[in-house]
Design goal:
Blueprint lengths: L13 E7 L6 E5 L14 E6 L2 E12 H5 L14 E2 L8 H14 L3 H8 L10 E6 L2 E6 H5 L3 H12 L3 E4 L9 E5 L12 H13 L2 E2 H8 L3 H11 L2 E5 L2 H12 L7 H4 L5 H15 L4 E7 L5 H14 L3 E5 L3 H14 L5 E4 L5 H13 L5 E4 L11 E7 L16 H12 L2 E6 L4 H8 L4 E5 L10 E6 L12 H12 L3 E5 L8 E4 L4 E2 L10 E3 L4 E3 L6 E3 L12 E4 L3 H11 L6 E4 L9 H10 L5 E4 L12 E6 L3 H4 L6 H15 L8 E6 L6 H6 L3 H15 L6 E10 L5 H18 L2 E14 L2 E10 L2 H13 L8 E6 L6
Helix pairs in contact: 2-3, 2-15, 11-12, 24-25
The structure holds zinc ion (2 copies).
The chain binds a DNA duplex through strand 1, strand 2 and strand 3.
Pfam families: Helicase_C, PriA_3primeBD, PriA_C, ResIII, Zn_ribbon_PriA
Protein name: Replication restart protein PriA
InterPro entries: Helicase/UvrB_N, Helicase_ATP-bd, Helicase_C-like, P-loop_NTPase, PriA, PriA_3primeBD, PriA_3primeBD_sf, PriA_C
DNA sequence: AGCACGCCGACT
DNA sequence: GTCGGCGTGCTC
C-alpha cells in the first residue's frame, strides 16, 4: 500500500534534527537513508538512529535543507550518519505538540529529548523494540541494532516488505494467554488477502463476540490462530492488551461508585439561570475558536460540574477534545464516574500518574491514534497526552496545590495548560469555590475572564460558621472541645452525618522522652517521629524512616515516654469513647487509603450512610460531597495558619471555605465549627460570611504592602549538603556572596541562604535562599550563575523552585 | 545509557 | 605476555 515511501533515484538533501530519548538526551543532526523518499520522513516521527556504535530512539524534530547545516561552523566538520528506520509511518507527535514541549524544555532548562522521554511510556521508546517482517510464510524478527548493519540490499528488501505492510514494529513482548485480551481495532471490510482464511475467521470471531482473550481464541480456532493474531496485531487490525491486570482493577475501583447516586448538582438536567448565563457566554467564546482563559468562581454546591458538562458537550460537538483535570486521582475517578453516568455513550479516558506503564502506554497510543474528539479526565500528567485537537482544558479546584507540586518533571499544570491553549486556540477554564489569589488578581487585570455562580443549586444556604476557642484545652482533654462534642452528638442524634478534618495523620505527632526531655526525632531529618498505633511504629513523615515502638529511647535507652498531640488515628479512637457505642466512625487518610480502591470504598461507604462520622486529613476537604453531612469540624485550624509561609492565610481560608462546603446541601442547614487558639485572626470575619472578595481585597493589600506575589515574583533556591560535610556552612556564605553580587546588576531582592525551616532532611542540611523580582528571567539568571560557579558539585545540591508551594 | 578506550593487577 | 577489572569520556 505504501510503496511510494521507497526511493528510486532522487538525491536526498535534507538533514534531520533528532532529539534522543535516552541519555545524553541531546538533539543531533542526521542525514536520511536514500532507500526512503524524503517525503517519507515527517516531523514527529519516532526514529531509530545510530549513536556511537549502538542504536537509539529519537524524535524527529525538524527537517532542514543541507545548506543551513553546512553554514553552521559547529557542525561543519562532522560527517553525518544516516537515520536507520522509523517506528512510525505517519507522524507520531504533531508539530503543535512538539512546540508546546519545546517551550516547556526552555522553561525547565532541560533538553527536549529528556522531556519527551519522561512523557512517553517506556514501551513506546524502548531500544528493545523489534522489526517483524513476513517474507512468504514465516515472520522474522530483527533487533534495531541488526537493522543498522545490514548490507544495502537486505536493508532495501526489508524496507520494501515493511513499506508494503508485510511487517511492523513490535512494540512490546506480551505475557501469557489468558491475560491477553484481543480487541478489534478496525471495522470491516478488512484489507487482508482473501486467501488468508484463518485471519478472516479470527476477525469475524472478534467482530461477533467483541474482545476475547487468547485462550478462548485458541480453543475456538486452534493453535494456528496465534500466527494470524500476531500478524493482524502487527498490521493494526487487532490490538492485544493485558486483560486482568490494571485495567480490570481500574474498572473495579470505578464500580465502587456505582451504587452511590449522583449529587443533585450533577444530576440536574435543568440549568439554573446563573449556570445558563455562564454556559452561554463560554459557549459563545468556544464558537469563536479563539484562545481564551476563564475563571469560574462558583461557591460550593453551585454546580460548577454541570457547567463543565455543558461545555464539554459543546466542545465535542465542534470536533475538539476536552481535558478535565482534578487535583488528585480519587477525585478524577469520581468525576469520571459521574460523567459516565451522565453520558453513558461517550467514551471517557481516565488517565493519571498511578497507572502502570502498560496501561499508560495503551492510553498514550490510543490518544495518539484517535481520529475522533476525546474526553480525558485525569490528574495533571494527562496534559502530556498527544491529543490532536484539544479545544477545552478544565482545571477543577484550580487553587489546589497539587497542580503545582513537583514530582519528576517540575512543571506547573496551569502554565502548561495555558501553553497548550495558546498553541491550539483552545479555551482554558479554571474552576474553584476558593480561587487562587493569583487567579483572582489575573481577572482584575483582564488576563482571565471571571464568571460567577453566587448561589447554591436548589437555593440552599451556606452553612453557619462558628469559632470554638480551644485555648483552655489540656493534653488530657483530647482534641475536641466541649461545644464541638455537643454539636457532634446533636448531629448524630438527628440522624445526620458529620466530618471532622484534622490535618495530621498517625496516632501521636510527638513522643516525648521524659528522661531526655526531648521528643524522639528522626536521625536523618530535623523532625519529630509520629507514632502510628496500628502499625506499632514510629515513623518520619518526611523520609519514611521508622522502627517498631515501644522501644528504648535511642539516646538514653529509657522507656519512659509520654505521647503528645492527636492525629487522625487517635481522634478516631477517642471519638468512639465520646460517642454512643452504636455510632460508626470511618477514617480517611493516607495510611488507611493506601491500597488501590480503598479510598473509594471509604468514601462510598460514607456516602451510603454506613457511618455517621468521617474523620480525615485534608484529602477529605477536596471536592467530595455528601448530601447528609450537616456538620463539619476543623479540629485544628492553627495547624495551617501558623505555617511559615506568606500564603498560610490564603491556604487556610481555602481550607475553611472548602470544609464549609462539605456541610449542608439542599434543604438541610449546615454548620461548621472551627477550633482555634487564634480568635483574633483577621481571616475569621471573611470566613464567617464567606466573603471571598472581601478576603481577597484585604489579602491583596497585605501582599502589596509586604511585596509578595502577585505583586512580585518569588522563588526559592534550595541548597543542601550532607550533614557530615562540615565545610558546607562556609560554602553557604560563599553562595550568599555570589547571589548578592549577581543581584546587584539585576533588580532582584535576595534573602539568604538561611537555614530552611525544615533544617535537615534525609541526612542533608537544608538552606533556602529567597528571591523576589519582577522578572522571572533575572531569578533564573541568578540561579544559573550559582549553579555554574558551584565549586562543590558533588556535595552541594541546588534546585530552583519558582513560586514555591511550600517554604519549608 | 551504552560502549569503546585505556591503564593496572593476577593468571596461563 | 595476555585476560579482564571498571574509571573516563564521547556519541551527529
Ligand atoms: Zn526522616
Ligand atoms: Zn531519651
Amino acid at each position: 500500500m505504501v510503496l511510494s515511501i521507497l526511493n528510486t533515484e532522487q538525491p536526498v538533501s535534507l538533514i534531520a534534527e533528532v532529539a534522543l530519548l535516552s541519555p545524553p538526551f541531546v538533539t543531533l543532526s542526521y542525514s536520511l537513508p536514500k532507500v526512503f523518499v524524503p517525503e517519507f520522513w515527517k516531523v514527529g516521527q519516532r526514529v531509530v538512529l545510530p549513536l556511537g556504535s549502538g542504536v537509539r530512539i529519537g524524535v524527529l524534530l525538524a527537517l532542514k535543507p543541507q545548506t543551513e547545516i553546512t553554514n553552521n561552523s559547529q557542525t561543519k566538520d562532522i560527517v553525518l550518519k544516516d537515520l536507520i528506520w522509523s517506528l512510525d509511518k505517519k507522524s507520531f507527535f504533531s508539530e503543535s505538540y512538539l512546540r508546546v514541549l519545546i517551550q516547556l524544555s526552555h522553561r525547565l532548562f532541560l533538553p527536549i529529548g529528556q522531556i519527551l522521554a519522561s512523557v512517553l511510556p517506556i514501551g513506546l521508546r524502548s531500544n528493545q523494540l523489534k522489526l517483524c517482517v513476513f517474507n512468504g510464510q514465516k515472520p522474522k524478527k530483527y533487533t534495531l541494532k541488526e537493522l543498522r548493519f545490514f548490507d544495502e540490499e537486505t536493508y532495501r528488501k526489508l524496507a520494501e516488505l515493511w513499506a508494503s505492510g508485510q511487517g511492523g514494529i513490535i512494540e512490546r513482548n506480551i505475557n501469557t494467554l489468558e491475560n491477553e485480551l484481543c480487541e478489534l481495532c478496525v471495522d470491516p471490510p478488512w484489507a487482508v488477502r482473501p486467501s488468508a482464511k484463518r485471519q478472516i475467521a479470527l476477525l469475524e470471531l472478534l467482530w461477533e463476540n467483541g474482545a476475547l482473550n487468547r485462550k478462548i481464541i485458541q480453543d475456538k480456532l486452534g493453535a494456528e490462530a496465534n500466527e494470524s493474531l500476531k500478524r493482524l496485531s502487527e498490521l493494526g487490525f487487532v490490538k492485544v492488551r493485558p486483560a486482568q491486570g490494571e485495567e480490570a482493577e481500574a474498572d473495579e475501583i470505578q464500580k465502587i461508585w456505582e451504587k452511590v447516586p449522583l449529587n443533585e448538582e450533577v444530576s440536574a438536567f435543568e440549568l439554573t439561570n446563573a449556570q445558563q448565563e455562564v454556559v452561554d457566554k463560554l459557549k459563545d467564546s468556544l464558537d469563536t475558536h479563539q484562545r481564551s482563559s476563564h475563571l469560574l468562581h462558583g461557591i460550593t454546591g453551585s454546580g460548577k460540574t454541570v457547567v463543565y458538562l455543558e461545555l464539554l458537550k459543546h466542545c465535542l460537538a465542534q470536533g475538539r477534545s476536552v481535558i478535565l483535570l482534578a487535583p488528585e486521582v480519587a477525585l478524577a475517578i469520581k468525576l469520571k464516574n459521574d460523567l459516565q453516568k451522565r453520558f453513558p455513550q461517550q467514551k471517557i479516558i481516565l488517565s493519571h500518574g498511578y497507572q502502570t506503564p502498560t496501561l499508560r502506554e495503551s492510553i498514550f497510543r490510543q490518544v495518539s491514534e484517535a481520529q475522533e474528539a476525546l474526553v480525558i479526565i485525569g490528574t495533571r500528567s494527562s496534559l502530556f497526552l498527544p491529543l490532536k485537537n484539544p479545544g477545552l482544558i478544565i482545571l477543577d479546584e484550580e487553587h489546589d496545590a497539587s497542580f503545582k507540586q513537583d514530582e519528576g518533571l517540575v512543571y506547573q499544570a496551569k502554565e502548561l495548560a495555558y501553553a497548550i491553549v495558546q498553541e491550539y486556540n483552545a479555551m482554558l477554564l479554571l474552576g474553584s469555590a476558593t480561587p487562587d489569589i493569583k487567579s483572582f488578581q489575573a481577572t482584575k487585570q483582564g488576563r482571565l475572564t471571571l464568571h460567577s455562580l453566587p448561589e447554591r443549586v436548589g437555593g440552599g444556604t451556606l452553612p453557619q460558621v462558628e469559632l470554638v476557642d480551644i485555648r483552655h484545652l489540656t493534653p488530657t482533654d483530647g482534641i475536641l472541645a466541649k461545644p464541638s462534642q455537643e454539636a457532634l452528638l446533636e448531629t448524630i442524634n438527628k440522624g445526620e452525618q458529620a466530618v471532622i478534618l484534622l490535618n495530621r495523620r498517625g496516632y501521636a505527632p510527638l513522643i516525648y522522652c521524659m528522661q531526655c526531655s526531648e521528643p524522639i526525632k528522626c536521625p536523618h531529618c530535623d523532625i519529630a517521629l509520629t507514632y502510628h498505633k496500628a502499625r506499632e511504629r514510629v515513623v518520619c513523615h518526611y523520609c519514611g524512616y521508622n522502627y517498631a515502638f515501644p522501644a528504648p529511647c535511642p539516646t538514653c535507652k529509657s522507656l519512659n515516654f509520654v505521647p503528645f498531640g492527636e492525629g487522625t488515628e487517635k481522634l478516631e479512637e477517642s471519638l468512639s469513647g465520646i460517642l454512643p457505642p452504636d455510632v460508626k466512625i470511618l477514617r480517611l487518610d493516607r495510611d488507611n487509603a493506601r491500597r488501590a480502591g480503598r479510598m473509594e470504598e471509604i468514601l462510598a461507604a460514607f456516602a451510603r450512610k454506613e457511618a455517621q462520622v468521617l474523620v480525615g486529613t485534608q484529602m477529605l476537604s477536596k471536592g467530595h460531597h455528601f448530601p447528609d453531612v450537616t456538620l463539619a469540624i476543623v479540629a485544628d485550624a492553627d495547624l495551617g495558619l501558623n505555617l511559615p509561609d506568606y500564603r498560610a492565610t490564603e491556604r487556610s481560608f481555602q481550607l475553611f471555605v472548602q470544609s464549609a462546603g462539605r456541610a449542608g446541601r439542599g434543604s438541610k442547614a449546615g454548620k461548621v465549627l472551627i477550633q482555634t487558639r487564634n480568635l483574633n485572626h483577621y481571616c475569621w470575619d471573611y470566613v464567617k460570611s464567606t466573603d471571598f472578595s472581601g478576603f481577597f481585597e484585604v489579602e491583596l493589600q497585605k501582599r502589596k504592602r509586604m511585596k509578595y506575589p502577585p505583586f512580585t515574583n518569588l522563588a526559592l533556591i534550595r541548597l543542601s549538603f550532607p550533614v557530615e560535610w562540615k565545610e558546607g556552612y562556609k560554602a553557604m556564605e560563599l553562595f550568599a556572596e555570589i547571589y548578592k553580587k549577581e543581584a546587584e546588576t539585576l533588580d532582584v531582592a535576595v534573602l539568604g541562604p538561611a537555614p530552611a525551616p525544615l533544617s535537615m532532611l534525609r541526612g542533608r542540611r537544608r538552606y533556602n535562599c529567597l528571591l523576589k523580582a519582577q522578572n522571572w528571567q533575572h531569578i533564573r539568571r541568578i540561579f544559573q550563575v550559582g549553579l555554574q560557579s558551584n565549586p562543590f558539585k558533588d556535595k552541594i545540591r541546588m534546585h530552583l523552585d519558582l513560586d514555591p508551594v511550600n517554604m519549608m
